[in-house]
Specification:
There is one protein chain. The chain has helices at 23-42, 54-67, 76-101, 137-147, 174-182, 214-224, 256-264, 273-285, 299-303; strands at residues 4-9, 46-51, 108-111, 114-116, 129-135, 150-153, 159-163, 170-171, 186-189, 195-199, 205-207, 229-234, 240-241, 249-250, 253-255, 290-295, 309-312. It has 313 residues and is of the alpha/beta class. Among the domains are: 41-127 and 164-210 and 218-228, Carbamate kinase (3-Layer(aba) Sandwich); 240-294, no CATH class. The strands form 4 sheets. Strands 3-9-2-1-12-16-17-15 form an 8-stranded mixed beta sheet, sandwiched between helices. Strand 1 (4-9), helix 1 and strand 2 form a beta-alpha-beta unit. It is globular, with a radius of gyration of 19 Å. The relative contact order is 0.15. It binds adenosine-5'-diphosphate and magnesium ion. Keywords: Kinase, Transferase. Belongs to the carbamate kinase family. It comes from Dethiosulfovibrio salsuginis. InterPro entries: AceGlu_kinase-like_sf, Asp/Glu/Uridylate_kinase, Carb_kinase.
């Protein structure tokens, strides 16, 4: 039986540093990402893909702000859904091309995905995740007063809206994702960490203004679709101790207890490597056999254990 792997893609999988973000820029990046993922499928792995959406949802938020006098602005959960559809569409088209070129008879498919969070999550009392563009002080203060949004000054670069980043507790569409993967579809799901929703008393869901970390949502997705492996692909080849310092040390195979020690020593930055290491450790802690953090261009090698950081029990 083929092994199921959930792959969480970072920002560089859709937009490279220095690119403007045109449709063609993003399509080109997605095509080279897909070329890496198709190697895994060709090697016999069953892949479920998830991805970030920071720059894309940022652009959609700018469009809301710029166009709000002509057409109504949409709330953040709707913007998140738009970004999942747009990014998923690019992936599905580029996947199909690559699968045809490899002679693989599989269908790619994108699922707009909601991820449940708790309305009691302490993050709601303490918004920390910056979203969207930078604004001047006057605009930020006006938005704060008119809407009750939280805004912060970001190290001299201007003002930015911050939203809560609650913990994902359930992938709402998990069963559909699992069944589609069982039937052989290449599923793209839970983009941007999923659309954050809270459950109502009657069992229905309501969107909230928040952002879920895509690595933590990816881990939950991996658990809930019973993946054998969980892989986070980013723009560095491995996880490092003393990252960026003269005594920097890149980590290969590390067991859970050793990684816990490094985490406690503060080697992994909040907002970048921190959530990746936390998500990878959680997957192994929850019974997964191996979690991998590696660079996108070494995806298959990392999956086979010769590159990247491998976290094992
Ligand atoms: P992604 O878009 O893939 O989620 P992030 O920028 O959030 O990417 O996280 C990857 C970045 O984490 C790397 O480019 C690197 O600069 C940074 N980083 C912070 N701490 C470490 C560490 N200990 N080891 C490796 N990279 C680290
Ligand atoms: Mg990130």
């Amino acid at each position: 039986m083929s092994k199921r792997v959930v792959v969480a893609l970072g920002g560089n999988a859709i937009l490279q540093r220095g690119q403007k973000g045109t449709e063609q820029d993003q399509r080109t990046s997605v095509a080279s990402t897909v070329a890496q993922i198709v190697k895994m499928i060709d090697a016999g792995y069953e892949v479920v893909l998830t991805h970030g959406n920071g720059p894309q949802v940022g652009a959609i938020l700018i469009q809301q702000e710029a166009g709000k006098d002509k057409v109504p602005a949409m709330p953040m959960d709707v913007c998140g859904a738009e970004s999942q559809g747009f990014i998923g569409y690019l992936f599905v088209q580029e996947f199909k091309k690559a699968l045809i070129a490899h002679g693989i008879a599989k269908e790619p498919l994108c699922l707009v995905t909601q991820v449940e969070v708790s309305s009691e999550d302490p993050a709601f009392a303490n918004p920390t995740k910056p979203v969207g563009p930078f604004y001047d002080e006057a605009t930020a203060k006006a938005r704060m007063e008119s809407s009750g949004e939280s805004w912060v000054e970001d190290s001299g670069r201007g003002w930015r809206r911050v939203v809560p980043s609650p913990k994902p507790i359930n992938i709402v569409e998990r069963q559909a994702i699992q069944e589609l993967a069982d039937r052989g579809y290449v599923v793209v799901a839970s983009g941007g960490g999923g659309i954050p929703v809270v459950k109502e008393a009657d069992g229905s869901y309501r969107g909230v203004e928040a952002v879920i970390d895509k690595d933590l949502a990816g881990e939950l997705l991996a658990q809930q679709v019973k993946a054998d492996l969980f892989m986070i692909l980013t723009d560095v080849p491995k996880v490092a101790l003393n990252y960026g310092k003269p005594e920097e040390k890149w980590l290969g195979k590390v067991d859970l207890d050793e990684m816990k020690g490094y985490q406690a020593e503060g080697h992994f930055k909040a907002g970048s490597m921190g959530p990746k290491v936390a998500a990878a450790m959680a997957f192994v802690e929850n019974g997964g056999s191996r979690a991998i953090i590696a660079s996108l261009d070494q995806a298959l090698e990392a999956l086979e254990g010769t590159e990247g950081t491998q976290i094992v029990k």
